[in-house]
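1st attempt posting a full record on here, be nice pls
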Amino acid sequence: MLKTRVLTAIALLSLVLGLLFLAGPATWIAFATAVALVSCWEWSRLCGFGPGARRVFLAASAAIALALVLAGLRAPAQVFANLAQASFVASAYFWLFAVPAWLALRLRPEPWASGLAGWFVVWPLWASLVVLREASPWILLAAAALVWAADIAAYFAGRRYGRRKLAPAISPGKTWEGVVGGLLGVLALGVALDVLAHAVPGPFTPLFEPAAGLPAVLAMLALAALSVLGDLFESWMKRGAGRKDSSSLLPGHGGVLDRIDALTPTLPAAALLLSLA
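the predicted structure (as tokens):
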């Protein structure tokens, strides 16, 4: 199992990094769209849809994908930028207000409401993959690495020091000590990026100018905290559907949503902060 998990991770990382740094804009948009459509398919398995309703949801998801791809490839840059910005704002409201209430009340809404929530999860993520990559592949990679650093640090801190459960009814393995460890891991990453930005001029340098360094690190910590919501929300949806994984597409890892759950609130928020900065 561990060997399968490692081999899958290496293959995925090689694919993503190759596309991130070498693919043209159209190829990257096609990749982001494939990720989004697979995520919609997996999400439809968590909503409690009947067969007919599920087909309608997937057909509507495909129509949204087509419209967004055409906008990304054909629409004037400012039109697409405004569309993406609107999706990032909607995503921020969804994750900051709707999801905490959803989890606190342990709601299991009607399938149509769960399906609509899935679009707030998936399509702002699609837009952020396009916008952040256009800004700089390194910035997109750093935003993703922030989540990975938080996840890895939280795992080891939780195993070593974990005592108080974060949300036992949703994800029994998560602890408050793990969350603190994750934030400390991101703090270390932020300091490292700050040092690197001043030592070697590059895409991070404008983000860590003397007046912006501390706000940038604080923003990274906020994004790391937000990533926990993404993880918990997908866990809650899977628990309600009686599933351990969103699918079995990725050997040793489960589904695509299982790999990107923490990115779904984080990357749109990062893109929104970047646009405001």
